[in-house]
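Q: Here's a chain of 232 amino acids. Please give me its 3D structure as tokens.
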Amino acid sequence: MSVYLQPRNPIGNLNILEFPYTPQLEYSHDVKYDAYSLTHTNYQPYAFVKSENPTISMSCKFSAHTTDHFRMSERAIRFLRTYSKMNYGRTDPDRGQPPRILRLFAYGQQMFNDVPVVISKFSMTFPEDVDYVQGEFSNDNKITGITARDPGKPSNQRGSDPRQQGAGYGQSAARDSVGNPNRIDKQSYSLALPVIFTINISLLVQQNLSKTVNEFNIHDFASGSLVRKGYI
């Protein structure tokens, strides 16, 4: 079952965040009540205040053992960094716009379908006890090759120039997706990722208030017809 995040107004080519492995998703919905402070009673009555916005937490595994998986992992990190930031800077004509609202799709149309969410937090750990894979990128951000890296060996084993690293990790030289040796461009850029790692993502549901007032009805919600429209 596919699980993905998708902005309606994407930035550049970051138009979708897909997951190579099915993520673990935790969904919670809190209801807030306040207690009346009555004297001489054993049971305080509660008054309904509001239903809190649902929160969604995702634990997503990524890997970097192949060129395709490395590319997907790098793109996921770039996606999360981008869509957790606002438009900013004098050169940005849309400066001041808050981070984009994303749409969550998961587990079918009757579970999470077109749910508007914002990224409230994401985190990942660079572990010390796994192998790393180093990727080389050209100026146009295309992967020119990946190289396995042994974390137990110093990063300057082949000298201080990072462009000389790669074959010095006890592995083969960088190779492209079809297995041909790559000559590392002088203007290339490197990125090292764990061969397997987890990214944790926290999402907040952000409904359009005007749309909600005009569309929501508890009877339609109970029938399931509103779930397909992103109400959870």
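Q: Can you summarize the key feature?
A: The first helix runs from residue 67 to 82.
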